[in-house]
Amino acid sequence: MNDLDDLDAVDPLAHVRELFDLDDDVVYLDGNSLGAPPKAVAERMRDVVRRQWGRRLIRGWSEGWWEAPQRVGDRIGRLVGAAPGQVVVGDSTSVNIFKALMAAVRGTDRTEIVVDAGTFPTDGYIARSVAELTGLELRPASPDALEPTERTAVVLLNHVDYRTGRMLDMAAVTERVHAVGAKAVWDLCHSAGVLPIELDALGVDLAVGCSYKFLNGGPGAPAFLYVPTAAQASFEQPLTGWTGHRAPFAMEDDYIPDPGVARARCGTPDILSMLALDAALDVWDHVSLADVRAKGLKLTDHFRSLVRDLPGIEVITPADEWRGHQVSLRHADAEAVMGKLIARDVIGDHRPPDVLRFGFAPLYNRYSDARRAAEALAEIL
Ligand SMILES: Cc1ncc(COP(=O)(O)O)c(C=O)c1O
Question: Which domains are delineated in the chain?
Answer without folding.
Answer: 2-39+286-380 (3.90.1150.10), 67-268 (3.40.640.10)
